[in-house]
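User: Please predict the structure of the protein below. I'd like the answer in structure-token form so I can feed it into my own downstream comparison script.

Assistant: Understood. Taking the following sequence of 375 residues as input:
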Amino acid sequence: MKYYLVAGEASGDLHASNLMQGIKGVDTAAEFRFFGGDLMQSQGGTLVKHYRSMAFMGFWEVIQNLRAVSKNLRQCKEDILSYKPHALILVDYPGFNLRIAKFAKRRGIRVFYYIAPKVWAWKESRVKLLKKYVDKLIVIFPFEVNYFTRHGIDVIYEGNPLVDAIENSTKTAIPFSGFCQNNNLGDKPIIALLAGSRKQEIRYNLPTMISLINHFTDYQFVIAGAPSLEEAVYEPYIGNADVKLIFNQTQELLRHSTAAVVTSGTATLEAALLNVPEVVCYRGNTLSMLIAWIVIRVKYISLVNLIMGREVVKELKQFDCVTSELSKQLSMILPNGESRGTMLSDFAQLKGMLGAVGVSKRIAKAIVDNTISNI
């Protein structure tokens, strides 16, 4: 069968690629066409547009790029109609994908939404759109099942796909010495810096993260470069700082890190699943952050804390994200730090809540079976 996928961010590219692999295992004649990234392209099919030209962060940034967003929407709609897929799989990225869902559903295309919009955090009005324009909503957090079912939406929950991504990367893991040698690193223990996947996130967060270097001279700092960005994006903020930048090795970097400083999003969960104690540090455009504080309805910004329902990792947001406080919190999760043991114990509990390995395969089978039964 023919599948059309839309992923607008690096995390969506990761999960969609694993899903595509799972679909190929169930439907050996599967054909793919997609808006996505390099990982999806590695699974075969046709990449129509790369997500790096679609990723805009924050309210104000989206408004500034409305023309580009409109152009991308128009191209996506036209391409879907031309391709005539048996199933449309929308991956996260709700501002864009909910519009595509409405368009496709009205034209008789079966719509699957993979990684539900976080309507429990803000824009709960989107629940009505999901109910009206999505045939099957695939959720990845245990607390979402009751939430969406309560709103009359048909959901699929097979666990969190990041469990599979971590398992896959474990199979090819190399020793610490080999990792350091391959990336021209020293032999000091590593503190990983994950400053986000968008230019705006790098601009607002990386300088504060880099300011930590002189406070922790027994460690080497390594930045996980976002696959959607080029080295030139990081250079103005790195300057002459004693820090390394590596690309396309985020999970491997985390695996060999003693601790991490992370913005938010999927990376916070990756660190936890790899048993890397972390501090969340997030700054953004002042206007966008002010609007977010007004409209967002949840207490936490990190997935770890949201899933656990309590503060497991420390979150430093906007004006709290300063060198002095970040340094203090980082010290507490390093070896012999007072918070490290408790955090690792909480991470073990978190893992038990996210399902067994094979999540992407189970979701893929559900999508294929449901599509076949409705042809």
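That's the full token string. Residues 66-83 form the longest helix (18 residues).
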